[in-house]
Amino acid sequence: MIKALTRWAAMAIAALALPALAAAQNPEVGERVAALQASLQKSSEALKHYEWIETTVVSLKGDEKARLQKRCYHGADGALQKVPVGEAPQAKKKRGVRGRVAEKKKGELTDYMQRAVDLVQDYVPPDPQRIQKAKDAGKVAVNVLEPGKRVRLDFRDYKKPGDTLGVEMDLTDNRLLGLTVASYLESPDDAVGLKVGFSTLADGSSYASDVALDAPAKSLSVQMQNSGYKKIR
């Protein structure tokens, strides 16, 4: 009886592992993931020779609350540097109890805004190591959008448990076309959606040109745009 139960348990564990193992061994998955990693690496190295302007606009219930521009470039050590351009306008402070309440709410909102902006950095650009980890765990699906032309790679549990990163690729040159992300901040109830459009520089490298983040729980949206690319070395 004990041996029978042991065999049954082993069979159950093997059955649970089969989908992940099959996905990990799927030749198409391996081929597409390798192509994506190569494309990310190529673009990452190319962008180290450029500088550009990142413009971030944060809106609450449709009203613009903050706008910030940063000059972006990679330092001698390869690390990405972001230097603010100009000064953000300062709102007039209210006095008294109302002023303190308003400042508290503003501080909470500012913290939430910052966490939302930071979340973008977790997914854009995709991390080749996290991609490999999802692939090894069998958490990658290849969805054909246009036979022979476009596919989308969906990575489950990419950064957080339950999140999904979708990467759309051009099969003719393995170029990134866009990203879609379903994630959250503190908990799944605080859902966040992310859409990213990619553009191509003259040397063929890809970059995230337009980023749109939507946090419906707070009626918050973040728009980021990267533009004005020019070679500096």
Give a brief outline of the structure.
The chain is an alpha+beta fold. The chain contains 4 helices and 10 strands. Helix 2 runs antiparallel to helix 4 (128-136).
Descriptive overview:
By secondary structure, the chain is of the alpha+beta class. Helices cover 35% and strands 39% of the residues. It is built from four helices and ten strands. It has helices spanning 2-25, 27-47, 96-123, 128-136, and strands at 50-60, 63-74, 80-84, 140-146, 150-156, 164-170, 175-184, 191-200, 206-215, 220-231. It has a ten-stranded antiparallel sheet. Helix 2 packs antiparallel against helix 4 (128-136). The chain is globular and about 65 Å long.
Secondary-structure map with pairings?
Elements: H1 2-25, H2 27-47, E1 50-60, E2 63-74, E3 80-84, H3 96-123, H4 128-136, E4 140-146, E5 150-156, E6 164-170, E7 175-184, E8 191-200, E9 206-215, E10 220-231
Antiparallel strand pairs: 1-2, 1-10, 2-3, 4-5, 5-6, 6-7, 7-8, 8-9, 9-10
User: Uncertain regions: pLDDT < 50 for 5+ in a row?
Assistant: 1-25, 97-103
What is the 3D form? globular
How is the main sheet built? 10 strands, antiparallel
Share of helix, binned = 25-40%
Amount of beta strand: 35-45%
Order of helices and strands: HHEEEHHEEEEEEE
Count of separate DSSP helical elements:
4
Rg from alpha-carbon coordinates: 22 Å
Strand order of the largest sheet: 3-2-1-10-9-8-7-6-5-4
End-to-end separation = 72 Å
Overall pLDDT level: 84
What is the strand tally? 10
Which structural class best describes the helix and strand composition? alpha+beta
